[in-house]
Amino acid sequence: MSDAAVAADPDLAAAMPFFASEFDLPPPTRPVRSYIIASTPRSGSMLLCDLLHRTGTMGVPTEYFNQRDMIVPTARRLGLALPVGTGTYIAALTRRRTSASGAFGVKMHFHQAWPLLGQRAFRQYLASSRFVWLRRGDLMAQATSLAIATRTNRWFRLRAAQGAAEPDAGTVDIGALFDAVARIRAETTFWQQFFAINRIRPLEITYEQLLEDAGRTVAAVGRLIQVEPGPVPTLDQSRFLPSAADESARWRDGVTTMMRITDDRAKA
C-alpha cells in the first residue's frame, strides 16, 4: 500500500492513523518495554490497539509487520532505504513509536511473524517482548465476521461513519465459513505452539472481555509491562466500532435456519 493510496482514500486514512507522521513520538529516554498483541483475524485487535494508544502511555500499537500493507510504506515514510533490514526497521519503529513511559506495542497475526522467524534481529525482538494473547470466545461469530470482511474487503467500521450503509455481504457462503474457521484455528494453533516451544506465558484476554470491561483489559496490559496506563478511554471513545453485527447476525441466522431439522417447516 503506497503513501498515495492511503492519502487518496479518506476512509483508509482515517482507519490507519498510526501510519501518519502525526502519530510519531519523540525518541524514548527510558528503557523500552516491548509488548506484542498476538491475535487472530477479527478478534478485536484493532479496537484494543486504539484504546491502548489513546491512554497516551502504551505506545502506538498497530500491525507493523503486515508485509502486504505496512512494512514498505512505513519504511519509506521513516526514510529507510529499501529493501529494509528487519533490525533497521525495528530500531526505527522503536525510536518513533515508543511512549515516554517506554512502552512500544505491536499487533501481530502469526502468519505475519512466520516469514521473519529465520532472522536473528526478529527473534531477538520477540525474545525481549511480553505477549498479550487476544482471542475471541465465539468462533462462529469470528468466522462469520472474517468471511464477510474477506468478501466485502471491509475490515473496519469507523465511528464517524456510523449509520452509513454497509457493503452487501450477499447470501451465506458455507465454503467461505469453512475457510474462515480453518484460518482462525490455524493461527490459534501456531500461536499456541509458539508459546509452548518458547515457554512463554502470555496475558490471555478475549474480545468478549474487552467489550465487557475495556478499562480492566487495558489496565491488565499495562501491568504486564509495568506501565501505568493514562486515563483509559471507554469503548464509545474509540474511533472504531465492533464488527458489523447486523450482517454477521444475518449470516449466523441463515446457518442456524439451514441446520435446524425440527422446525415447523421441516414438519410440514
Put the structure in a nutshell.
With 268 residues, this protein is α/β, with parallel strands linked by helices.
What this model shows, in words?
The protein is α/β, with parallel strands linked by helices and 268 residues long. It has one domain: 3-Layer(aba) Sandwich (Rossmann fold). It is 47% helix and 9% strand. A four-stranded parallel β-sheet has the order 2-1-3-4, sandwiched between helices. It is globular. The N and C termini lie far apart (54 Å).
Spell out the key features of this protein:
268 residues; alpha/beta; Rossmann fold; four-stranded parallel β-sheet; 13 helices; 4 strands; 47% helix; globular
* Topology, number of strands: 4
Numbering strands along the chain, what is their spatial order in the largest sheet? 2-1-3-4
Alpha plus pi helix count: 13
Overall helicity = 40-55%
CA distance, first residue to last residue: 54 Å
Query: How would you spell out the order of helices and strands?
Result: HHEHHHEHHEHHEHHHH
Major beta-sheet overview = 4 strands, parallel
Name of the CATH first level: Alpha Beta
Low-confidence regions: 10-15
Structural class: alpha/beta
Q: What is the CATH architecture annotation?
A: 3-Layer(aba) Sandwich
* CATH fold call: Rossmann fold
Produce the secondary structure layout.
Layout (H helix, E strand, L loop, with lengths): L2 H6 L1 H6 L17 E7 L5 H10 L16 H7 L8 H11 L6 E7 H4 L6 H8 L2 E6 L3 H14 L21 H24 L5 E4 H6 L1 H11 L20 H15 L4 H4 L1
Parallel strand pairs: 1-2, 1-3, 3-4
Helix pairs in contact: 8-9, 8-12
